[in-house]
Specification:
Layout lengths: L1 H6 L1 H4 L6 H10 L5 E3 L4 H12 L9 E4 L13 E5 L4 E2 L12 E4 L2 H7 L14 H5 L20 E2 L2 E2 L1 H9 L54 H4 L3
Parallel strand pairs: 1-2, 2-5
Antiparallel strand pairs: 3-4, 3-5, 6-7
InterPro entries: HAD-like_sf (IPR036412), HAD-SF_hydro_IG_5-nucl (IPR008380), HAD_sf (IPR023214)
Family: Belongs to the 5'(3')-deoxyribonucleotidase family.
Keywords: Hydrolase, Magnesium, Metal-binding
């Protein structure tokens, strides 16, 4: 599959307008970017060069390829140094991650120990939240696509299963990362207030008749005669 995509990048990879500018702004504002991908370096390098240009590597402090997520988050597989010239991996023990090197494999615990960052917070950008963040021991489900299914996010009035899972595992979602370019780095997103069941407006075709009153005789909803007035 990798060779097929590389042979025709324009067909399979759509350039994300504004992506390079957004990543550059994050870097210039003091954010330290790193990339952890399941793809091999040769494939990822071709795609990133096509989308961001020859200098794309300067945007990221650390680059990890062939990470094999989601086992990356649970295994103790060591990091291996990748040699671009020979397309091979070194067996030399990695004691510290360096910003000008390419690493393969590894695990999240070792990454946290051997990578150095000025600040503790991490903002995750990902396009496959299930394999990256969801429980890797979950039952594997084949993904099916049918254009007649309608929206992926809603089933009539209710949220779809996919949308509920996405809401549980992510803070915000967007169709394109550059959409965030319109917001400052200090912007805070707040979830929209949703109505609770008892807050839903109920329309009753009885003029000026309250649903609650201190006088029970004025609002006896059990009395059918009080509602049968048209």
């Amino acid at each position: 599959m990798y060779s097929l995509v590389i042979a025709d990048l324009e067909k399979y990879i759509h350039k994300n307008v504004g992506l390079a500018e957004y990543l550059t702004r994050l870097q210039q504002s003091g954010k330290e970017l790193f990339m952890i991908t399941n793809s091999p370096f040769t494939f990822m390098n071709k795609g990133m060069t096509y989308m961001l240009g020859e200098q794309w590597r300067s945007l990221f402090k650390y680059i990890v390829v062939s990470a094999k997520k989601p086992t990356f988050f649970q295994s103790n597989r060591p990091f291996r140094l990748y040699n671009e010239t020979t397309d091979t991996l070194s067996y030399e023990k990695i004691t510290q991650l360096e910003s000008d090197k390419i690493y393969a494999g590894g695990n999240i615990s070792e990454f946290a120990q051997k990578a150095t960052f000025r600040k503790p917070g991490v903002l995750y950008f990902g396009d496959h939240i299930y394999s990256d963040l969801a429980d890797p021991k979950r039952e594997q489900i084949k993904a099916l696509f049918n254009p007649n299914f309608g929206s992926m996010f809603r089933t009539f009035h209710d949220m779809s299963f996919f949308c509920r899972r996405l809401s549980r595992l992510s803070d915000i979602y967007t169709s394109r990362l550059p959409n965030l370019f319109a917001y400052t780095d200090e912007h805070t997103f707040f979830p929209k207030r949703t109505s609770l069941p008892h807050e839903i407006n109920i329309s009753i075709n009885v003029p000026d008749m309250p649903l609650c009153s201190s006088k029970a005789e004025d609002t006896n909803l059990a009395d059918s005669n009080s509602l049968d007035q048209n």
